[in-house]
Amino acid sequence: MLPILWPLRRFETWAPSAETYAKTYACWYYRYPHNIGGRIQCYLKGGKKCYALMGENRYHSIFGGYKGCVAVNASDIAIALVALNAKIKVAGSTGNRIIHAEEFFSSLRNILKPDEVVTEIQIPQPSSTAKQVYLKFRLREAIDFPIVSIASVIDMDGEVCKDARIVLGAIAPTPIRAEKAEQMIKGKVIDVAVAEKAADAAVEGAVPLGMNAYKVEIAKALVKRVLLS
Fold this sequence. Notes:
Blueprint (H helix, E strand, L loop, with lengths): L17 H5 L5 H4 L44 H8 L3 E6 L2 E6 H4 L12 E6 L7 E8 L10 E10 L2 E10 L6 E2 L1 H7 L6 H11 L11 H15 L1
Antiparallel strand pairs: 1-2, 1-3, 4-5, 5-6, 6-7
């Protein structure tokens, strides 16, 4: 098994669904039990507003919303697949198609059509000089939803970074490629100064909500940690 997927080894024993890959709608307004105080008719349930925008939003997106919703994609496996440049094969009534993981997770849930199912995940063999890291900041055990997560595949030529894919999770409706951070480290020896600049670049453009600015600092810390590990 690829090192970056070690935290996901539990998936070997059963067939995960598309919901497992996406694990979307990590939002208590969306998941609020119907038998406690009645149904909350948020935007995703056909309502007219996202209650998290002005409500409890400490775990929500710091990179805006998707069509009015600021819930995050909290999937562990999604960011790993994007970092590994994986492709996802799906089958439907009109035949098969292959989708890059980055495109597959490009909406709040995924881009599967109603009649499609995932049949195969294709992961290219990383370079023998690539360093793979997965980290998750969470409140409880490993099974808990991440507050912020990161997956990276960094290919090294000696001490110099040759190529990099850095993906952040649980901070936006979709997995976020930290492309500016990737460009920041390519062709360079990754020291503390470079790692700090890359961490700043990774969260450039963040627009925290009223209660979740702390996620920016966690994301920066995780980027620095994977780069210096």
